[in-house]
Amino acid sequence: MRPGAANRELAAQRRTPRRRRIDAALATKICAGQRFARGLSGRGLSPFRCTGDSPRSRPRSPRVARTQAKNFYYSFLLLSRPQRQAMCAIYAFMRYCDDLSDSDDVADRPAAIAGWQKDLDAALAGNPSEHPLWPAFTDSIQRYGIPHQYFHDMIRGISSDLEPRRIQTFQELYDYCYHVASVVGLTIIHIFGFENPEALRLAERCGVAFQLTNILRDVREDAEHGRVYLPAEDLEKFGVKAEELAGPDLSPALRNLLAFEADRARAYYREAEPLIGMVSSVAVASGTPALAFAFSRSASAFFGSFGVVAIPTM
């Protein structure tokens, strides 16, 4: 028997009967999810049935299916069915918002986003359009008491990306991160459930950490498209010109700048860490392992565009 196999056998023997039942149930669930996702994705369908009370709320976009199956499918499987359905609906809304802002298939992005904003207002007022997302989306908002303002903030955030931009100060960058990322965390903790109002502040910080990570990962690509999210005040502080961000070389000054911004992201991750213990008992039983996995995975898997070392797991 190979050493690896022996170690696995020993570990299996040490697991309690209850733990073995949990592991077996989880493995069964994940395998079923894999088969379900492969089958639906192969037919161009979403692997999630984002249904509220209406079978019409089943997004068919292959792009949504690919994105969801790639990043979130297994963690969603750990949630209760109502939570999973709500997460699907909210994710589909936010994915659609993001696509409107950067998809090459959208000819007039400002008009498309303005139209989506009107559709959102109508749906929240109880007069949804025929878009299949709205029944599940509005059901989820009502079921979990999600504030409407979060969705308006999301649209405001993606609208700000329509034109090339240069962030001037960190406060401006923080505001951008709030609108495109923190509102996501603020929304989903309502689905998980929480009692301590401090969870709202920490969810905001967590979103900022995630978005700073995304910005650092895509520094070069964004700069090539005329978007510089690193604050101008920081570039000046470290003696870096905006044009360097799109270049092939990593100067000492640029490395120091990226390390400085990475430290900011680390600080927000660490500040937000207690959020994992603040979700409700229902989420602890079914969803918190997924939240913790997503939280720590995004922190530890961070790599900058120029080979900046990964932000360590907390």
What layout of secondary structure does this protein have?
Elements lengths: L2 H12 L2 H26 L19 H10 L1 H5 L3 H22 L6 H16 L9 H11 L4 H11 L5 E2 L3 H23 L5 H20 L1 H6 L2 E2 L3 H7 L13 H21 L8 H6 L1 H13 L14
Parallel strand pairs: 1-2
Helix pairs in contact: 5-6, 5-7, 5-8, 5-9, 6-8, 8-9, 9-10, 10-13
How would you describe the overall organization of this protein?
The chain is an all-alpha fold. It has two domains: 45-156, Farnesyl Diphosphate Synthase (Orthogonal Bundle); 164-314, Farnesyl Diphosphate Synthase, CATH 1.10.600. The protein contains 15 helices and two strands. The protein has helices at 3-14, 17-42, 62-71, 73-77, 81-102, 109-124, 134-144, 149-159, 170-192, 198-217, 219-224, 232-238, 252-272, 281-286, 288-300; strands at residues 165-166, 227-228. A two-stranded parallel ribbon has the order 1-2. Mean pLDDT is 74; it is low at 1-5, 10-69 and 284-314.
